[in-house]
Structures are given as C-alpha cells and as structure tokens.
Amino acid sequence: MFKFLFKRLLVLVPVFFGVTLVAFGFIRALPGDPVEVLAGERGVTPERHAELMAQLGFDKPMWQQYLSYVGDVLQGDLGTSLITNRPVVEEFFELFPATAELGLCAILFAILLGIPAGIIAAVKRGSFVDQGIMSLSLVGYSMPIFWWGLLLIILFSNTLNLTPVSGRLSFLFDVEPVTGFMLVDTLLSDEEGSFWNALHHLVLPSVVLGTIPLAVIARQTRSAMLEVLSEDYVRTAKAKGLSPVRVIAVHALRNAMITVITVIGLQVAVLLAGAILTETIFGWPGIGKWIIFSVFSRDYFAVQGGLLLIAVSVMAVNLIVDLLYGLINPRILH
Amino acid sequence: MALLDICNLSVEFATAHGALKAVDGVDLKLDEGEIVAIVGESGSGKSVAMLALMGLLPWTAKVTADRMLFDGQDLLTMSAKQRRKIIGKDISMIFQEPMTSLNPCFSVGHQISEVLAQHFGGSRRSHKARTIELLQQVGIPAAETRLKAYPHQLSGGMCQRVMIAMMIACQPKLLIADEPTTALDVTIQAQILELLVELQQANGMALVLITHDMAVVAETADRVVVQYAGQQVEQRAVKDLFENPRHPYTQALLRALPEHSQGELLNAIPGVVPGQLDRPVGCLFNPRCEHVQEHCRQTPPTRNEDILCHYPLPLAGQKP
Amino acid sequence: MTTTTATPSPAATTSQSVRQQQWREFWFYFSASKTAVAGLVFLIGVILVALFADFISPHLPAEQYREFAEIPPAWMEGGQMRFFLGTDYAGRDMLSRIIHGARLSLLAGCIVVLLSASIGIFLGLVAGFKGGWVETIIMRVMDTIMAVPGLLMALVLVALLGPGLLNAMVAIAITYTPSFVRLARASTINEMNRDYVTASRVAGAGPLRLMFISILPNCMAPLIVQGTLSFSTAILDTAALGFLGMGAQAPLPEWGTLIAENRDLMLSAPWTVTFPGIAILLAVLAINLMGDGLRDALDPKLKRS
Q1: Would you say residue C283 has pLDDT above 60?
Q2: Residue C112 pLDDT more than 90?
Q3: A64: burial class by Cβ within 10 Å (0-12, 13-18, 19+)?
Q4: Over the stretch B84-125, which tens digit does the pLDDT of each residue have?
Q5: A133 contacts A121 by C-beta, under 8 angstroms
Q6: Is A310 in Cβ contact with C149 (below 8 Å)?
Q7: Tens digits of residue pLDDT in C153-197
C-alpha cells in the first residue's frame, strides 16, 4: 500500500516541475517589455529600467531565473498580486474554501445521484428506466453549463423565487469566517437561520457544477456494473442464496466502485474548470472568479500563482483518490 | 421418493438470431447419497441444465419443465424468495473457474461465513469457529490465518477448496460440481476429486459431477448421463456403460480415451457439436455418427430405455 | 514470410474488398443504433445549415433593426414572423445570428480536432515507436498539460496570446492534445508487438512507413472515437471561452458570445439567451450520440451478438 502511494507520489514529481516550468514560462513569454508589463512603469529612464529588471530578476540567465523561481515556490512564495499588492498565496487560500465547499457539494450531489442511477440502469438494462437514465445523462454530458446556470436562475430564482441569485450568504447575516466553509461557519455562529440561508445559496451552483460529473458518474457506474454483473463471482453470490439486493449492493457494487472511484478522481479537474464558469455566473467569491478577474485585469503574478496552486490541488486530490482506490481494492491493500 | 426429480427440462435462450435451444428435454432422477456424472462435449448443455435447476441463468433464458421436484418441493412454482432458502443451503454448486468465482474484494472468511449468516442467521462473526472447521475439512492448512486471505493471494487449487468449503457450509443434500477440476493443474485435479468424494461420503450428500473427462466418471460416479447438443442420449450405471455403450455417441466418447488410442493418434470424433444455425434434420448426431442410416437423417429419434437412438448398439452377447 | 512476398495485385484487390467488408460491418453495427443515426442526421443538417447560412438565414447576422429591439419569438405575444426567434438588444435577428454562429462553432470544433489530433497522433506514434528518452519527455510534457484543468489552461494561454476566436481554438487544441498522444502511444505499443509489424520491418520498411502506413491505420478506431468526442467538447469549450469574453469577440455571432452579450437581457428578454444555448446543446448532443454509436461500432471489445 505504501509502496503504491509512494510510486504515485514519485510520478507526480516530474509533473510538479513541469507545471512550475509552465508557470515560469508563462511570465517569460508575455509579449512586451517586462518592466512595462509587470512593474506597470512606462517611459522610465534606462537606470530605473535596469534597476527594475534586477528587482524582477530578469537580468540573470534563464536557468538561474528558473531555479530561483522554483526555490521561491518551494518556500511558499508565489509573488505579489499586481492589483492588490498582497501575496498571491494569501489571496488564494482566503478564497479556496469557497471553491472547495462548492466543489464538494457538487461532487456529493453527483455521486449521491449518479451511482444509484447507474446501478438502476444496469440492473434494469434495456428497460425504459435504463433508456431514460442514459438519455438524461447524455443530455447532462452535452450541457453547456454556463447556459444551464443562467436557465436555472431564470427558472428558480426569478420565476419561482425559490433560490437566491448570487453570493454565498445573504448580507442580512454577519457570520465570522472561522473555517471558510460557509456551512460550517454558519453552524458555529449564533445567527439564526443563517445555515439554511447558506444552504439555499449553495443549491443552484452545486447542481450546475455537478451536472457533468453526475452524467459521467451515472454512465460509468452503469457500464462498470454491467461488466461486474456478468462476472463469475456474482453467480457464486447468487448460488449462495443471497438476496438480489445483497448480491448487487455488496458483491457487485464493491467491485464496480474500483473503476468508478478512478472516474470520480478524473472529475476533479473537470470540476475546477467548471468552477470558473459557475462562480462567474453565480457571483461566487472563489478561486474561479478570482482567476478570471486576474486574467482580465492582467494580474500576471496572480494568474501564474493560481495556475500553479490549482494544478497542485488537482494533484493532491488525485493522490487522495489513489489512496481511496488502494483502500477499496484488496489487490493493492494486501 | 427421489431427492431430485427433473422431467423434460428445456432451456431456450433468446438471441439476436432467434431462439437457441441449449437444453432439450432432459430427465434426471437422483437418490440421496448418489453420485451421478453428466458428460458431453462443450456446448452440450451440461452446465446450463444444472444452472437452470439452481435458477442462475440470465433473464434471456426461458426454462420449462414438466416436473422439477427437490425433496418433494416444486422448484418451478415456488417464489424466488422461497427458492433462495433452498439454494446455497440444500442444493449448492461449485464452478469451473475457482479464481474468478470468488469475489476479489472480500476475504475468504467473510465469503464463507456469509453463507452461514444467510441461512442460519446470526452475525458473520458468530460463525467464525464453523468457518475455520470448514476450511480444515477441505484440507486448507493453517485455516485460522487463511480467514483473512483474499482470493488473489491463493492458488487455483486453494480457491477451489475455499469454494467447496463455502458450498458445503450448510451441509447440502445435493452438491453440483460443474467441471470442478478443469481449470486446475493436473496434479491438483485428483486431490480435488478425492476431496469431493470424501466429503460426499462423510456428509451423505448426493453429488452431480459435470465433466467431459470419461476417466473421472469411471473413478467416481455411480451412474452416467451422456448429453449431446442439449439432448440426453444415454443414461446408465457406470459399469454397464463402460462395458457396453449403447449409443453410438457414447461409444465414440469412450473410444476417444487415450488408452484406446492407436499408436500416437487419439480416436477423435470427427466434426463438432452443431450450433444454433447448423442443426441437422433428424437425429442431431447423424452427421458425425459412423452407424448412420437414411432413417436417422429424416426422423428425430425418441427415447427408448433411456437411449436416444433409432438403432442402439446391441447389448453384449447379442448380435443384431 | 510468404505473406510479405505476395504479388501486389491480388493483395490490392483483397485489401479493397476487405475494406468494403469492414465498411459494411461498421455500418451494420452503427445503423443498429437508431439514436446514433439520428445524431448523424442532425449533425449533417447542422453542417448544411452552416454551409448555406447565407442563403438560409432571413437577415444578415449583423443587421440592426433598431426599431425592433427585443422583439419576442413569433409564437409569443408581440412576436413577428419576420423575426422568428426574436431579436436582441440591438434589434438583430436571433435566428440569423444562430445560423451564422453554427459556422463558427463547427469550424472551431473542426480546427481544434484537426490540430490536436494531428499533433497528438504524431507525438503519440513517435513516443510509442521510439521509446526511451523521447517517449519519457513527450509523456511528461503531456502529464503536465493534463495536470492543469483544460479550461484554466486555455484561459492562461488566451491571457498570453490575447483574446480572440483563433487564439481560443489554438489554446483548446493544446489542452486536447494529451488524450490523443496517450491513445496513439498505447495503440502503437500494442500494435508494435504484432506479427504484421515485425513482418513489414523484416521486409525492410522504414520507420516513417512503419509508423504511418503499417501501424496508424490499425489503431484508428479509438482515435476516431476520441476525435468525435473531442469535437463536441471543443464546441462546448469554445462557447465557454466566448461566454467568458476570452474567445470570439462581439459582434461575431459565436454561440457562447451570443449568450454573453445578451446576459443582461436574461430576465427581460430570456429568448436571447435561451436559443443560443439550445443550439449548443443540440449540436453537442447530436455529436455525442453519434460518438456513442461510433464507439459501439468500432470497439470490438464492446460488440455484442
């Protein structure tokens, strides 16, 4: 098990350096004079120009620049935002819980709906239920989620007046950020009704963000279940006189989950990409909205740092998924 | 009263090319403590008939029979729930591929005690002692430590022993063994067979042994059923059948045994078992039969003295 | 070795009939799925609409009928048959804009797939064929690209190159390359061990011939399926970038851009947002339906009797 995880970790090392190289290259590849682009100073004297170049480290050879960049990264220094003048790391981790909360709710929504749907479709293979679930999941898989979000806002927020349009919490409440997770913070605070309010704010964005993972998980669960249901050990389980529910929910599902877990892991990257769109639509103050803002305002250090940190988060989550995979698969655990 | 009484069992599969008749009018009567072998080539419907008895066929299969009684209970009319109380307890079955027949996600101990919990109630943990006893009974050394082993950590022979332990856990009255040794090493095959016969005698259960190996039949069975293309062509006591086969197919099977080979060549039966699309008219065996006559090519035979042939081979000492 | 020395003419004719046979078999399996055929038919329809947009669309896409701004669709109260799907804030006909948008979206999808597939397949073949450090470098670079969520990578690239449809397409193509590389490499390694490759190598075929003539045609099936699926996601991602203001720029009637430019009218004139979205959804759905059918027809592992 440790060997397995260690191997996985080892694979991530070159990827990590690859990502630092991309992030590093991003700044160097910016068109125009770095002093004008990054320091925001125009028409400076040659002396001032040289001084700024030295300050930004652009006067050293490329490999030295890269090494010092990697050194900074490993020490947790990702530069300073050109707009707010705050360390990029600080900004990132301030906003990260909002995205994490949204992402968790979305994947939970996708798993809780997708796995049962996939199981039912597989067990009732070829029936109308199966065809219905599979058609819906194909529609979900084909959904432009930014449009889906707008549609749901029109329907639920505007026509039916059921959910709030944007943000994480109504401004009527004053909740102290402790964990950054609004659901937890509102529970900790003594503001009555704030938890429900936060939950209300979470529903639509989670549904929108979870739509594509839901479709993918339902499809993959179905095909994994179909494969597993034709295995010999399922026949053995039936030959033991076990009830169909036990055969499917214990013997078949446990094996099907081995592949489904991998698929769920792959959805993390999809989720983070989707968060950019979802957060923009719902005014959700998270990483996605922040990175879009940074791109628009040409806050290059923020973009660079965000790119690196998001990539590292994806790698971290994938490692956790690998761990789960190892725990559920006895061939790796033992 | 016979323990098992099957009359005119047929199984049809719905396929893209129409119905496929995998089992065609099979009769089987079995007394307590008897060993019956079912032999035939691949595709002769040996396993399918027994899977039908167990209710393990996929939904594409249509099972019909005039009678299917086990211990006086009608398996055809009882509900699925009632049937599950018998399956795994009084009738159980072991399969050809031990490695894939065990669930890779659960420990051996878990899988055995699960049967006990299912049929006798109680928690799985309360059945630990019995599980160890069962593992010892099937000859697994260091049974206590093997409880936590996973199937991928065991060899094929060990897996089959676990399978057997699992299926005799509830002391069934009937055990069906579907080619239990085919997937195993030759050296292990004999051990597993020996174990099965030993258990059969110790527990006094009836045993149905599905095989295509005539040598195995001769060593273990009391009675033999020969199947060809889903049909039952001959059914007799083992000694009789070996000394004096009556159906040409049985004769050909016996001649194909290595000890009857001439020089280096085995006496293989020419041709293959007919499939769904090339079923012959008349007797199904006629294209491969060396005693074939014109009548065989026209009319399907009916069963007479448990032999499905227009012109059965003569009894010993008689000339036709 | 007798097979390699066979005379060319019978080999040519048999290979032709084999190909015909393969086509027939493919079509048999593909047409078995009614939804896949429906997807194909719809897609052909969209392609025709895109090709003949100038003749079909009732108005010019950029023509502004200022006095007819925010007219609802024909079947709603206050709608006019002239503007069947209504008009936007500037009085431009939504139907015409969507019809012309089909061009941009399909074109973007095509270019993205062509670019990423050709680069990806080439790199994958080289990686699988050469092995060693070449393979290591290629695969590590691909791992890196894959570590960053696709849309984010595209955003960063667009931030670098500047917004615009062309840059968006290049950016998306780069993020799609790794999946083609991985597939092509895996199939190449798979095929390399086959006898026919050894045979043609013994017969003296050069590496390029081996890669493109011997190996590539035999691992096309998964690549075609991947290409189809990429085509649909490319349309989605192009639209997403357009929506974020990072792709096609107004007044280009790209579908995502249409939604973005009418977003403020979302509540007062919901049709301006609804119909472009439906267009995206239907086009992507049709391609995915077709892709599913293709996979079932081409992937022998999933073939069922």
Answers
A1: yes
A2: yes
A3: exposed
A4: 899 988 999 999 888 899 999 899 999 999 999 989 888 777
A5: yes
A6: yes
A7: 888 888 888 888 888 899 999 999 999 998 888 888 888 777 777
pLDDT for B317 beyond 60: no
Strands (E), B96-204: 174-178
Tell me what pLDDT residue C300 has.
55
Q: For residue B269, what pLDDT is reported?
A: 79
Residue environment code for B214-243, b if the CB has 16+ CB neighbours within 10 A, otherwise e = bebbbebbbbbbbbbbbbbbbbbebeebbe
How confident is the model over C258-277, as a mean pLDDT?
85
* pTM of the complete model: 0.86
Domains, in order of start, for chain B: 30-57+79-228 (3.40.50.300), 239-308 (no CATH)
The closest CB to that of C285, out of A142, A146, A295, belongs to: A142
What length does chain C have?
A: 305
Higher model confidence: residue C10 or residue A279? A279
Considering CB atoms only, which of A233, A239, A254 is closest to B92? A239
Domains of chain A and any CATH numbers: 95-286 (1.10.3720.10)
Return the closest-CA partner of residue A106 out of A23, A4, A216, A190.
A216
Q: Kindly report, residue by residue over A25-72, the tens digit of the pLDDT.
A: 888 887 777 777 776 667 778 888 888 777 777 778 888 888 888 888
Full DSSP string of A182-237: HHHHHHHS--TTHHHHHHHHHHHHHHHHHHHHHHHHHHHHHHHHHHHHTSHHHHHH
Alpha carbon of A267 to those of A111, A308, C230: distances in Å?
11, 19, 16
**B243-264 mean pLDDT:** 80
Put simply, the answer to whether B86 touches A241 (Cβ < 8 Å) is: yes
> In this complex, which of A231, A251, A329 lies closest to B100 when CB atoms are compared?
A231
Cα B157 to Cα A239, B28, B192, B196, B219: the distances in Å are: 20, 30, 8, 13, 20
Mean pLDDT of chain C: 82
Question: Does residue B232 contact residue B226 with C-beta atoms inside 8 Å?
Answer: yes
Closest-CA distance, C33 to chain B, in angstroms, reads 14
Chain C touched by A202 (CB under 8 Å):
no
Q: Determine the distance in angstroms separating the CA of B134 from the nearest CA of chain A, rounded to an integer.
A: 16
Give the highest mean pLDDT range of B138-147, C207-216, C276-285: C276-285
Report chain C residues whose CB lies below 8 A from the CB of B15. Answer: 305
Put simply, the answer to whether A241 touches B163 (Cβ < 8 Å) is no
* Cα separation, A205 vs A275, whole angstroms: 9
**A237 vs B103: CB contact, 8 Å cut-off?**
yes
What is the Cα–Cα distance from C265 to C135, expressed in whole angstroms?
Answer: 52
Which residues of chain B have a CB within 8 Å of the CB of C305?
Answer: 15-17
The reply to whether residue B167 touches residue A239, judged by beta carbons under 8 angstroms, is: yes
C259 to A295: CB separation less than 8 angstroms, yes or no: no
**Per-residue pLDDT averaged across A67-89, rounded?**
86
Cα–Cα distance list, C268 to A136, A154, A328, C88 (Å): 29, 10, 52, 11
Decide if pLDDT at C301 tops 70: no
For tokens 């000694």, what's the residue? B239
Residue among B55, B104, B150 minimizing CB distance to A255: B104
Stated as kind and residue range, the H or E segment containing A156 is none
ipTM: 0.87
- Secondary structure class of B244 (helix, strand, coil): coil
Nearest-CA distance A187 → chain C (Å)? 32
Interface test with B, best of A229, A233, A250, A258 (most B CBs within 10 A): A233
